[in-house]
Design brief:
Length: about 90
C-alpha cells in the first residue's frame, strides 16, 4: 500500500490499491502459466517473507559505484512513465 501511495504522490494521480485474496493471486499467477510449485512459492513469500528480505545491503553501490535510491526517489524520477495519457 505504501508503494501505491508513493506512486500516486509522484504522478499526481489517484491510484487505488486492490488487495487480492490468496485464491485470486493463485489464479492470477496460474493465468501467466506458472506451475503450482511456483504459485505456492509466491504465495508463501508474500504471506511469510524471510527476515533477510528486510536487510539493506550495499550491493547496488558495490556493483554500480552509485548509491542506491529509495523507491520514492525512483518513482519521482520515472513519474512520467506512469501518468495516464490525456
Amino acid at each position: 500500500m505504501e508503494r501505491t501511495r508513493i506512486l500516486a504522490d509522484a504522478t499526481g494521480q489517484d491510484i487505488a490499491f486492490v488487495r487480492l485474496t490468496e485464491d485470486d493471486e493463485r489464479a492470477r499467477l496460474r493465468g501467466y502459466g506458472y506451475d503450482e510449485d511456483y504459485v505456492e512459492f509466491g504465495i508463501q513469500l508474500a504471506v511469510n517473507p524471510p527476515d533477510a528480505g528486510g536487510v539493506v545491503l550495499p550491493t547496488v553501490e558495490d556493483v554500480t559505484g552509485k548509491p542506491a535510491r529509495t523507491f520514492a526517489q525512483w518513482a519521482r524520477e520515472n513519474a512520467g512513465r506512469f501518468r495516464s495519457a490525456p
